[in-house]
Design a protein that fits this description.
elongated; 8% strand; 141 residues; three-stranded antiparallel β-sheet; mainly alpha; 8 helices
């Protein structure tokens, strides 16, 4: 399974989980009704305007762990970083418009890595180097 397929599989799991998003009081009221809660105190924020029911906290944490574990397992299965890891970085480079910015910050943040972590891991460093090379070779410069 390549990175995009794994990312889509993880997204499917999130799509069936009850998550609300609101950016106004009216939206919040509508989402609270959809989630079946009466009080804002029954919600937990998850960032980016999103929230879940407090009663779903444990299940949400399990979902996060499961999706992160899938990616970690795929990274671990890549022997040298030239397979899944390079595909992962190349996908996120494209998704974060590296061809325009030439800045890795958004790509690394999306994956939860720092530049120091990449530098310390031969597999991640190889994968990122390979991804940049492939990305540029595909004409995205």
């Amino acid at each position: 399974m390549n990175y995009r397929e794994l990312k889509e599989r993880n997204q499917q799991d999130f799509n069936v989980f009850l998550i609300g998003f609101a950016f106004s009081r009216d939206q919040l009221a509508a989402e609270m009704e959809r989630l079946g809660v009466q009080n804002e105190a029954d919600l937990i924020g998850i960032g980016g305007g999103g929230f879940i029911r407090k009663t779903d906290r444990a299940a949400f944490l399990e979902l996060l762990e499961r999706t992160q574990d899938r990616i970690k397992e795929a990274i671990d299965a890549d022997p040298d970083g030239r397979g899944f890891v390079a595909d992962m970085f190349e996908t996120e480079l494209a998704d974060h418009e590296y061809c325009i910015t030439n800045d890795l910050t958004d790509t690394l943040e999306a994956l939860g890595y720092t530049a120091e972590e990449i530098e310390q891991s031969p597999k991640l460093k190889t994968g990122l180097t390979e991804a940049i090379k492939n990305y540029r070779a595909a004409g995205y410069e």
